[in-house]
Amino acid sequence: MRCLIAGLILAAVPAAGLAQNPAAPEPYVFETRVIQLPEGARPHDAAPGRPGEIWYTAQRQGALGIVDIASWTFRQVPLGEGSAPHGVVLGPDGKAWITDGGQNAIVRYDPASEAIDVWKLPEETGYTNLNTGAFDGSGVHWFTGQNGIYGKVDASGAMAVFKDPEGRGPYGIDAAPDGEIWYVSLAGSHLAKVDRKDGSVTLIEPPHAGAGLRRVWADSRGDLWISGWNSGKLYRYAPATGAWTSYDLPGNAPRAYAVYVDARDDVWVTDFASNNTLVFDPDSESWVATIPGSGPDAQVRQILGRGNEVYLPESGTDRLMLVTLGE
């Protein structure tokens, strides 16, 4: 399916709506553009695709979506019977690597040939509720499953699956600049560093019990930024020192879902409670921008981006928002 929707510019002004720290950079200028996707697509994750493309997972329609930025059109590629894709990332091979909870498989899509590889998890793992993937420094794809597993698969399809020491919860995952893999557990509320040689993990507890660590992202210095779903906080963990720092999201009873660090090392966090995506400046330690959802209960899930672009998939509105940052 290919559909053209008129682009909607929602903002091209300095960000407003939050108290500004005098040390924060001024102004914070951005522009947003929204594309309406098929009704019921429930776009869960969005990621850079090939140059000029945004990829998204149409979780409820079992498809990978491809948005052409220049023409602002999209098409969807069916991934197989029973598919319910959760995460998508661009691999070093230029292909889309997808964590497909419906097929209990890692799916790889080649945009050049349109070939699809489906690598099922071993039967003995049972249903894993696959979540998110990331590539380590050697080009191996690591993934999480909320039913208590994490694992890896290489370009040949060779796979290994491991059990989280505390069971249910593995969720967000990312590679640090040194190529090492870290993931967080939502139900287990811990941070885990993976030993890429043997697959074992070292668990690290956050400063608040039951914080509900949901997503993790590394900045250019190797510090890890983590969203606390239950605590309503943004966390920074410094592997070099073992130190944690926490920051309260603004508002009452916030629900921090996704986290992403952009090319400028600003930190993006989605707050389901306020229906906003917030931007945090680590240098001034202040919230510097608020980007409202394009409609009520937008539910922005995973955030990714490229250069001065940030992609916000709205599972609640069946829309995708492209945020372009100013100078």
- Biggest sheet architecture: 5 strands, antiparallel
CATH architecture of the domain at 206-291: Beta Barrel
CATH hierarchy, class of the domain at 206-291: Mainly Beta
Element-by-element helix/strand order: EEEEEEEEEEEEEEEEEEEEEEEEEEEEEE
**Class from secondary-structure proportions:** mainly beta
Strand content: over 45%
Strand order of the largest sheet: 1-7-6-5-4
List keywords for this structure.
327 residues, mainly beta, Thrombin, subunit H, five-stranded antiparallel β-sheet, 30 strands, disordered N terminus
Describe, in plain words, how this protein is organized in 3D.
The protein has 327 residues and is an all-beta fold. It has a domain at 206-291: Beta Barrel (Thrombin, subunit H). Helices cover 0% and strands 49% of the residues. It is built from no helices and 30 strands.
